[in-house]
Every structure is written in C-alpha cells, then in structure tokens.
Known about the structure:
The structure holds two protein chains of two kinds. Chain A has 15 helices and nine strands.
Amino acid sequence: xxxxxxxxxLRAPVNVTWxxxxxxxxxxxxxxxxxxxxxxxxxxxxxxxxxxxxxxARMQVFQVNFGGGEPFLRADFLxxxxxxxxxxxxxxxxxNGTVLDDALVDELLAMAPVYLQxxxxxxxxxxxxxxxxxxTFERILAGIELLxxxxxxxxxxxxxxxxxxxxxxxxxxxxARHYGAKTRLSRFRPSGRACGVWEDYRLDxxxxxxxxxxxxxxxxxxxxxxxFALTPDGRRALGLNMCGAAKxxxxxxxxxxxxxxxxxxxxEFLAGNVTSAPLGQIFGSSPVxxxxxxxxxxxxxxxxxxxxxxxxxxxxxxxxxxxxxxPDPECLRxxxxxxxxx
Amino acid sequence: MRTGxxxxxxxxxxxxxxxxxxxxxxxxxxxxxxAEYLVPHWVRVxxxxxxxxxxxxxxxxxxxxxxGDSLEPPPFTGTRRALRVATLDGSRQAAVARLxxxxxxxxxxxxxxxx
Lengths: 342, 115
C-alpha cells in the first residue's frame, strides 16, 4: 500500500544514520562525507553521545547505522556501541575493515548482534585501489578474512556501484559468498567528495540498464533502498520504494548536526543540532524536514512507475538540477527512453 | 572510508496490514481470548498514529499495522513483552483476531496459551 506509506507520518525515524566521527585512515575518491570533516565543529563527546542515545531510546528508534569517517578509529566507540545495544536499539556499523583485529572482533561478538558492513569497491585489487587507495584491497580483505575466520554472523560487503566496478558485480557477489557475507550494492551519489568525480564515476545508460536487470534477477542482494528509482517490478516488495529522508530516517553528523539523510548534509539542509535541542523535537518540528515530507515531484505523477519510486532520490536531483522538485535523472523510465539528465 | 554507501541494512522491506477488510471467523475470535501475544526479543514495536509499527531486527523488515487503538505495544525492551489487545465488539474483535494470526505467522508475535 505505497500511497499510504508516503502519506504516513511517523512519530520518530525508523533508523538514524550517525556519522560518529570524521576521522578516517583512508581517502576514498567518492567519500560522501569528506566535507563533514572540514566543516564540522568537532565531535560530540561521550556524554553528549550518551544523551543522544537516551533520546533515541525515548523516541523508540529501531536502528542506528554508524558511519563516519571510520567509526572504529574513535577511541570510545565501543562504549557508544555498548550503550546503544543496552537500550535495545539495533546497531549497524559501516567500516572499511582495515582496523579490525582479534580483540575488537571479540568485543563485537560479545555484543552480538552488531551488524557489520565492510566497504570494498571492487572484486579486483586494481579496481578497488583506484577508488579507495593503493594497497587497500589487501588490507580490507584481511579484515574480511578475519571476520570470516571468526565466524562473524552478521556480515555484509558493500560496493558503491560506479562506472569502474559495475562489470565486477557478479564477481563481487561470489567473493562475498565465499566469505559467508551478504552482498550489498549502494548507489553512487554526488555528495561530499563524490561531487568531484561524478562525471567520471556515474553509470552510463547501458550500465544503468544492466544494473537494473541484474537487481531484478538477484532479489537476495541488498540495496538499502539505493536503487528504488531504478528498481525493476520484481523487487517491488523488497523496499520502501520512496525516499525516506526526514520521514523514515535522518542523519546526525559528528558535531551533532541533524540532516534529512546522509546524502543531504549540505548547510542548507541543516535542521538543528542535538546539543541545542532534543532530536525528537528537531525531527518533529524542523521546517527543513517538513519541506521533505511535503515534497512532491509533480511531473512524475502520471508515470506508470510512480508507485515504485515517487520521483526518486532528491539528493541526486538537487545536485544535478538544483531543484528537489524535479525527477531523479536516473529513473528507469528516463533511462529507457534516453531522456535522463546528462 | 565512508563512501557512497549508506549504512547497513537500511534496505528494509515493508508490509502494510490492516484490520479493515478481514473477515470474521469464530475460530479467530476465540484465539484472541485464548492466547497471550508475546513480542520476541528480536522484534521491536512502537505506537504510531495509524496503529503500531513492527521492526524485525533479523531482516530490518518493517510491518505497518493499521490497527487503530485495538492493539497496544509493550515497552520497547524487557524480558516478557506482551501485546495488549483491547476488548472489542464482535466484528472488530474478529478482524483483530485475524490480524493477530497473521502477525504470528510472520514471526512478529508468539501466541502463548494460558496455563
């Protein structure tokens, strides 16, 4: 019942993306949050983090997705993770896998379930290393091998699909299976440092069509609602089929800034800061969030795929067209007809 | 790190259940009276304006239940969390009973027969 879903107002986000730190030991060319590192005003200290977790529990947020930076570089991250776990909130951590060791895996296993997602951007070293840096393929794979050897139960490998690695998706999926991990594919979006490589990394028309077909043939592959604008009918029941920004989700930056989603962390989308107001208050009353909740891509209403995407990703539309009221340029109808925004 | 990916398991699928169109059956009505409905430890449930919202932590799957005020979620955490079912008249009770059976089938609640 997607029409009901789009008009439904939730009392709290289903999940919150929390960029827990701006610190990172890699310099990936498509990092969506590289800007946060330089723009931010420091990081929330542990006391503020605990306050935020109490607020998340009060709001009954189901899941927190930790990102960064590299979360495990933050010295008190395990304390934060433990605190989330104790409040009954599901914790997911996106990591580059390079700082994992046996002691850390012991801690994570003791807290199970902690869902780990390791980022790897190709099935081959030369592909991944072009994007994530020289030598990173071997370092990331060492982390994955460690988790696999320890029988880590809640593991997925994530690849941001770009022009450089799209031909390796099948191989990547086999690699993930080899290590007992799920495969997750994420959409490449023009946010943070990725803006600078958008034209070089974005998929072309044929690649978008190939990807759409591949996803249709592989419903078991996770996509995190990334590709709902491109989703074939066969995946209709697998996701929300709409942008969840400010409705189902929101993002908290390292300094406590609150944004509609992790891909919309530009200053004009800042809704508040958790050091000044409770997250529940920001989520419920921010004019920035209200704008997203009432956002309608009018031109898409007549499309036969409207119930599958509701206009697509506003972050991409905003970057490419400077308007959130225009359709996602990579929607399947536009791609098929060859009318996508160049 | 932190590349175009947005963190794990955001891909939640969803289902929308409603009490509006379910048919009444005596068996189902009896089920409401007979059982206690416990929420397993891997499931979270909270109140929303339309009814209640389930989250299955194993799959990150959401289930929207348009139950109005007929079902009351238990506390967010705890060892024995039971869904409270309002006392309703005939047809609504039957509808809720069918809904509860569906939730049991989906693994979102567990029916426990009274001692």
